[in-house]
Structures are given as C-alpha cells and as structure tokens.
Inverse folding.
C-alpha cells in the first residue's frame, strides 16, 4: 500500500492555477465536476441549462446583429463560474429556477469580497430586498444591469433573470456589447472583463470556455486506423467515468486510494486517475505502460516541449510537469486526440473528458508509442 500511495502521489496532483481556483470553488460552492460527455454536451451542465445557452447563442443576433462568434461554450463558461449552472436548484420546463439564486448584499460590509455600497434600484423586485442591491440568477446580474439587457426569451411576457432562457439571452447580449467579434481572443477577453474586471476571473472563465469548446468540437477519428484508433476509442469510451485518485488498471476502472495532496480519497470511487486512464487505453492496443505519469514519459519516442503542441499526433501521450524539462517533476499525462484536444482524467472531482491541451499548466512534451 505504501508503494501504491507513492506512485499515486506523483501521477496527477494538479498544481495551483488550473481550470478552477480555490477562489472560484469558494465563490460558487462547487467542486470542479466538469466531465465531458458525447455530442458536444458537458456532463456537469443540467440539460435544461445547456438548452438555454444554445438557444441564447442562436437568438442574440436578433438583438445585436453585428455580434459574431457567440456560442454556448462562452455562456457556459460564465455560468459555471457565476452559479455552477444552477446545479442543485429545480429548473422547470419553462426555465424558471427555484430556489432563486441570490448573491451577497452589496452594502460594503466586506462579506463575499464586496467593499462598495450599491443602492437599491429595483425596490426588491428581482433581488428580494429594498435595502440594497445583490446579484441575481444563474448569471448573477445586478438589477440595474438587468434593466438594460434583460429580454423575454421565452415569450411569456416577462424578462426574468431567474429564468434560464431569459438570463442566458441577457448574458449573451451583454457580452456582445455593441457588436463584438468573439472569435477574436482579445475581444472575448474584453467581454469577460466587462462582466467582472478581474484577471483571476478572466483566467477561470477562459479555462471553462476552452474546455466546453473542446467538447463541442469533438475529435475527428475518420482518418485514424490501427492501434492509434484503438487507443483513442478506448479512452473516449470512458468519458463520464469519475476521477479516482490511484484508480484504473489495464482492465478498466477500479477503486483508488487515499489521498491526493488536497486530501481527496479515491478509495470509495471506481474510476481512473490520469495514468490509470492511459494504462487502460494503451492496454487495449496490446501495449503495457508503467503506472505513473513520470515513468510513462520514458516510453516510446520523446517529443520535446520546445517543438510545441503542434508536433503532437493522435495517440501520443501528453505530459505536464512542475518544472518542464525535468521529467522527474511530471505530474500529469493525457492522450492526444488531435485538433488541440486530449482525453483527460484531470483531477479529483472531475470525470474523464475531452480538454484542450492547454487546460493543464506546465506542458512538458509528449511520447509517441504508436
């Protein structure tokens, strides 16, 4: 057991600063459960919320004709950070969310990080209090902002920030501004900073947008054959299987061990950690891998990080290190699926999913075994 704990500790311990920070986890009260499922859907997004994001992306052109590049992953990235997609609430067929989502009262008390007093503007109509302002709904609009961007997406006669469809459309309109081109990274960043002028907030939202975008695109397997296709299909078949610290064998998901550096135990979770997933996928092609990410970097032909991610080919192992260039510090491994994506068992609280190869920090190159 001691030996098992030692290899688990160097397999997938994520460094500080990846997709969701402690700040965002505290703000949303949510774990990083962003597993990606088939069909461009995200397993951590309630189906009714996802439909609201997609509907808003289609409708926004009616209100901001010059806006380009608005897609559901952008709205999903904002809503993930603002409310964790209203997970835990009841979302009715018409999109109404109950209980309603309220932020802290912005009275300058310092609670929840607020230091500025925002006087009441809606008489408590949306935020339930006439003693000040608080953000509302899954996109956390201030009532004063909602007054300018709120639209009735569901044609029920009310533009309600506590309704999934209305709120998503309002967010799309707000992010589009006067007609931004959100396909341009600089304009996407400007839109997010308009929502919340914080570098930390920007990085977290962009991380989620990139993950959801990767899910929406999906890998192209048409031109793959042989062992490459076998490995990638084997890994993709495990999407949605939970992350388990120390979990996964050549035979499939298994119960893990205790505990990750953040104190997360895999002992009661049947699933994969990062190197458990790669061990399983390659075993389906008849290739045996050592059990740790760092040890796996010693197999096959090494692809230096200096060549960039563009040197990767489908089926390659992708590595991440605390100190790129020193393979002994490798902490994570994924399987490159092509198109800038990898199949990834990211960290405790997630599920196996498709990610951008930029979703983890410290890119340390790859290894080609196929």
């Amino acid at each position: 057991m001691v030996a098992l704990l030692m290899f688990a500790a160097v397999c997938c311990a994520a460094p500080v600063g990846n997709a969701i920070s402690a700040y965002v986890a505290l703000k949303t009260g949510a774990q990083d459960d962003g597993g990606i499922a088939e069909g461009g859907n995200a397993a951590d997004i309630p189906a009714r919320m996802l439909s609201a994001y997609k509907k808003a992306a289609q409708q926004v052109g009616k209100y901001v004709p010059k806006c380009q590049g608005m897609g559901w992953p952008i709205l999903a990235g904002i809503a993930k950070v603002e409310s964790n997609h209203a997970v835990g609430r009841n979302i009715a067929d018409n999109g109404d969310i109950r209980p309603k989502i309220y932020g802290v009262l912005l009275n300058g008390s310092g609670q929840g990080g607020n230091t500025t007093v925002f006087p009441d503007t809606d008489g408590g109509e949306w935020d339930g209090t006439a003693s000040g302002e608080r953000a509302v709904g899954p996109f956390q609009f201030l009532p004063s902002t909602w007054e300018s961007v709120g639209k009735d997406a569901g044609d029920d006669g009310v533009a309600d920030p506590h309704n999934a469809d209305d709120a998503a459309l309002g967010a799309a309109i707000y992010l589009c501004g006067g007609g931004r081109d959100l396909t341009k990274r600089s304009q996407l960043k400007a839109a997010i900073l308009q929502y919340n002028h914080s570098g930390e907030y920007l990085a977290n939202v962009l991380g989620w947008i990139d993950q959801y975008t990767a899910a929406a695109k999906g890998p192209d397997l048409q031109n793959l054959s042989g062992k490459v296709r076998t490995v990638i299909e084997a890994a993709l078949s495990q999407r949605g299987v939970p992350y388990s610290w120390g979990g996964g064998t050549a035979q499939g998901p298994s119960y893990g061990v205790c505990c990750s550096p953040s104190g997360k135990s895999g002992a009661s979770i049947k699933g994969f950690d990062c190197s458990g997933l790669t061990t399983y996928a390659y075993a389906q092609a008849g290739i045996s891998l050592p059990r740790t990410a760092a040890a796996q970097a010693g197999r096959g032909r090494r692809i230096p990080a200096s060549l960039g991610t563009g040197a990767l080919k489908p089926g390659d192992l992708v590595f991440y290190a605390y100190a790129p260039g020193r393979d002994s510090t490798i902490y994570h491994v994924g399987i490159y699926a092509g198109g800038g994506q990898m199949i990834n068992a990211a960290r405790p609280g997630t599920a196996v999913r498709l990610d951008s190869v930029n979703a983890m920090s410290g890119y340390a190159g790859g290894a080609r075994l196929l």
About this structure: The CA atoms of residues 25 and 31 lie 6 Å apart. The mean pLDDT is 86.
